[in-house]
Write a structure and sequence with these properties.
This protein is an alpha/beta fold and 195 residues long. It has one domain: P-loop containing nucleotide triphosphate hydrolases (Rossmann fold, 3-Layer(aba) Sandwich). Helix content is 34%, strand content 21%. The protein has 5 helices and 7 strands, in the order E-E-H-E-E-H-E-H-E-H-E-H. Strands 1-3-4-2-5-6-7 form a 7-stranded mixed sheet, sandwiched between helices. A hairpin with a 3-residue loop joins strand 3 (62-67) and strand 4.
């Protein structure tokens, strides 16, 4: 998968704005401030291609990035403690749910979690809901560079247990050191080749 020519395409705020494209889509979901933008920048190998913010809730639409001739990466708004109104959070929820439930081009949802924290209710609910909807998902545990090797292994096992996952269901990742980048890319390519 060549991400060098990737480009931002559009930000979608309602289903009717979704791109009219046959290309498969890979969506990236995670709690606010979990490192989603940093992960995408690491995949694209560009420092500030996807805007990174210290303010939770910065991503407010479904942001589509085109990987020419291959797929779209779709950056979903963060969930959890985003500093926006309850009404806006509800609108996001409706838009994301409708997108995930109805988008035929969707091949995979990458669910991003911070490796330093124990299993969170929102992540567990999302993984379970995706399973119930028969939507393939892959967990990615980010910020691995913040932990030593032993602590990393221990926290990954804790998260696996909390979410009912095995090592084959997730990737340990660091946007800083690029740990897990090649593994994640190969998992995404495999998902697209199965489509």
């Amino acid at each position: 998968m060549n991400l060098n020519d990737a480009s931002f395409q559009l930000s979608v705020h309602s289903l009717r704005q979704l791109p009219d494209s046959e290309l498969p889509e890979i969506a990236f979901a995670g709690r606010s401030n979990v490192g989603k933008s940093s992960l995408l920048n690491a995949l694209f190998n560009r420092k500030s291609f996807v805007k990174v913010s210290s303010r939770p809730g910065k991503t407010q639409g479904l942001n589509f990035f085109l990987v020419p001739g291959t797929c779209h990466f779709v950056d979903l708004p963060g969930y959890g403690y985003a500093k926006v109104s309850k009404q806006m959070q509800a609108q996001w929820g409706q838009l994301i749910s409708a997108y995930l439930e109805t988008r035929l081009q969707l091949r995979l949802v990458v669910v991003i979690m911070d490796l330093r924290h124990e299993a969170k209710k929102h992540d567990r609910e999302l993984l379970l809901w995706l399973k119930q909807q028969a939507i393939p998902s892959l967990a990615v545990y980010t910020k691995a560079d913040k932990l030593s090797g032993n602590k990393r292994t221990q926290m990954a096992a804790t998260l696996d247990a909390g979410h009912g996952l095995g090592p084959q269901d997730r990737v340990i990742f660091s946007a800083t050191t690029k740990l897990g980048r090649e593994e994640l890319l190969s998992r995404l390519e495999l998902c697209l080749s199965d489509a």
